[in-house]
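Hello again, I could really use a second opinion on something today. I've been puzzling over a protein and I'd love to understand its fold better. I'm sending you its amino acid sequence along with the backbone structure tokens. It would help a lot if you went through both lines with me. I've dropped the whole record in just underneath, so have a look.
***
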Amino acid sequence: MKITPIVFAISMSALALAGCGGYDRELLGDPQPEPAQEAVEAPSEAFYTQVPPESLDVGMFSELKFYGSWFYLDPFGWVWRPIVTSEWAPFVYGHWVWTSYGWMWISYEPFGWATSHYGYWTNDFTLGWVWIPDYQWSPCQVDWIVYDDYICWSPVPPQGVRFKDPWEADRYNPWVTVRWKNFVEPEVAHYQEPAKFKAGYSDRTLRRTAPDSRDIERVRGKTLSMVDVSLERTVVGEHEFARVALPPDQQQIVEQHRTQYKSPSSSPPAVKDSVGPPAPAPEKPKGSSGTKTEKKKDTSKPKAYKAQAKEDKSKEKDATDESKAKEKKPD
């Protein structure tokens, strides 16, 4: 039975008016099978592409190859991952100083000249903390939160990424939280505390700006010294790069706390290499010269055995002497 489009439309209209949703095989014929759907190819899992640093046009940032690796990470493009422990986070190992540029972060890390003053940081699920380069210099690339007795800072994230507030963050908390009195201490990470937020009270004191230097002086009870720093500028290609030149006293603090790093390894992106100061050598026991002395095994016989043998030998000698005396006695 051949069904024309007109007949088909009239039939479907009749079914709709009748309120019937069934299928009339005599009227419409056998149903046609649905066309097979084309298989959808699964997306590739190769999201991370490691590249040799010499193939990148990043100017002086190419020096970072000694302390990490470059990867292509969508949607940010080329990013740099430092060789650090899993507990590491940016803007932790260093201290704050007051300068003519405002608050400046003095990093104890050899790559801090770049990653503390340029670019953005984000925490990737597989790679961990990665740095996204940018060419605009800043005395400190951080966001601030000040409230109650706390000062908090975190790295500036790239566009499209937002970090939770310090009292909301999970175990990947990007914020460092310290009290006002400890803010300008060397190695300030030793003073960080969990952020405590009192709803209704802390809201009234919360500001998302850098701490006021006058408030720091008031809390500490003494004048805040301004550190005289300068910028050493170098032009490479189309970009200008700046390094912070520190006065001798600040440079000495950095050298005292300088973190030791090893060369990059060829491990896959998901595996993080441990870095840090080498493990100390095991201490020698007191009174020891450090040379292992092997104790000689005593193969001599026990004292009781020696005494018994001596007694037996004496008796044997007496018996021999007595026998000789009998032989010499005349009949």
Residues 6-10, 12-23, 34-46, 262-307 have pLDDT under 50 and may be disordered. Residues 123 and 172 are 8 Å apart (CA to CA). The chain is about 20% helix and 20% strand.
